[in-house]
Specification:
Structural class: mainly alpha
Number of domains: 1
Helix content: 55-70%
Order of helices and strands: HHHHHHHH
Largest sheet: none
Radius of gyration: 19 Å
Shape: flat
Number of helices: 8
Length: about 150
C-alpha cells in the first residue's frame, strides 16, 4: 500500500470516528436529507459517468455540448426524488419561495436567457441543474428540524 493510500485511509477512519463521537442520539432528521447530500457529493466532485469510467475527465467542446445520458439520469432521478420529498412539505415551501423572490426572479431571467443563447440545449440543461439546486435547498429548509438539518 502506498503512503498516499495509507494517508487517505487514516484520514477517512479519523473523520468517521469523529462523526461517531459527535452524534446526538436524541436528534432525528428526515431521511430525505440524504438526497441533497448525494446531490452535493456528485456536484462537488466528478460526474457519475467519470466515476464509472464511461467518459474521460477532459472537458472537450463535444463533451460539454452533448452531455451524458448517465449523468442526466442520475441527476434527474435525484431531482425527482427531491420533488417527491417536497410534496408533503408544500405548505412550508410557499412562504419560503415568497421570501426568496430575488432568487426566483434570477432563475426566471436565466430561463428566458435560454431563448437567445447560442447553445439553448446546453443552457436549458444548466438551468435545470440550477432548479435542482433550489430543490435540494428547499429539502433542507423545510425539514421538520431545519437547524439540525
Amino acid at each position: 500500500m502506498s503512503s498516499r493510500s495509507l494517508a487517505t485511509l487514516v484520514c477517512a477512519i479519523g473523520v468517521l470516528g469523529l462523526f461517531y463521537l459527535d452524534r446526538d442520539k436524541s436528534l432525528r432528521t428526515s431521511k430525505a436529507l440524504w438526497i441533497p447530500v448525494i446531490w452535493l457529493w456528485i456536484n462537488g466532485s466528478r460526474s457519475v459517468s467519470v466515476w464509472l469510467g464511461f467518459t474521460s475527465t477532459s472537458n472537450s467542446a463535444s463533451n460539454l455540448l452533448q452531455g451524458n445520458p448517465i449523468d442526466r439520469a442520475v441527476l434527474g432521478s435525484l431531482m425527482a426524488l427531491g420533488v417527491i420529498a417536497l410534496i408533503p412539505r408544500r405548505g412550508r415551501i410557499i412562504p419560503l419561495l415568497k421570501q426568496s423572490w430575488p432568487i426566483l426572479l434570477y432563475l426566471s431571467f436565466c430561463l428566458v436567457s435560454v431563448l437567445w443563447s447560442d447553445f439553448p440545449r446546453v443552457a436549458f440543461r444548466r438551468w435545470t441543474k440550477g432548479i435542482g439546486d433550489l430543490v435540494m435547498v428547499l429539502i433542507v429548509l423545510t425539514d421538520p428540524r431545519p437547524k439540525a438539518a
